[in-house]
Amino acid sequence: MSFEESLVFHASPTLASIKIANLYSFRFRNLSECLDTIRSFNQLMNEKGIYIELLKNMGDVYLIFVYRKSHLQKLLSDRRVKSFLKKYGYSSELSLWEYIETLRMRLNIEKDFPHEIGVFLGYPLEDVQAFIETKGCDSVLCGDWKVYHDEERAKCLFCKYRRCREMYIKVYREGRSFVDMLVGA
Questions:
Q1: Residue ranges making up the domain that contains 120
Q2: Which residue among 18, 23, 66, 117 sits deepest, i.e. has the most Cβ atoms within 10 Å of its Cβ?
Q3: pLDDT tens digit string along 146-161?
Q4: 149 in Cβ contact with 130 (< 8 Å)
Q5: Taking the model in full, what pTM does it have?
C-alpha cells in the first residue's frame, strides 16, 4: 500500500473534515523517506487545513498523526481539555505546535502509551478520562475508541466514519485524484 492509499484508508474522516484527527502506523524504508513523504504531502494538504506529523519512529514503522489544524486548535483551547491535559504535563498556555511536541515527547519517553492522546484524536473527553481511570475496562461499546458515555452518539459517529472510509476508498480506487478528495477547512 502506498502512503497516499494509507491516508485514504486510515485518515479519510479527517480528510473529509468530519473528524479532528487520525493516528496510524506506516512502514517506510528509513527516516529520510518518511520525512520527505510527510513534507511532500503537507505541501498538498496544508492549504486545505490538513497537516501530517511524525510522532514516533519505531524502527521502520512510523506513527503518523493526521489532523485538521483549526479543529484541533479549537479543541485544545477548551478550558476542560486544558485542565485535563495539565494533569499529564501539558502547560495550559501552549501553542498547537507545543501541544503536539509535548505529545511527541511523551510518546517517545514514557514507558506506557500516553492515553490522553484520545483527546488529540477528538474522542469525547469523558470517554478518555473513563478509559484512563478504568484502565480500559468496563466500556459499554468498543469501536474507533472505547465508549463509556453517550453510546448512541458514538454508534452514529462510528457509522459515519465507516461510511466515509468506504466511500473514500471506493472513489479513490475508481481513479479520483487524492487532492480532489481533500475537503477545505
A1: 3-176
A2: 66
A3: 999 999 999 999 999 9
A4: yes
A5: 0.94
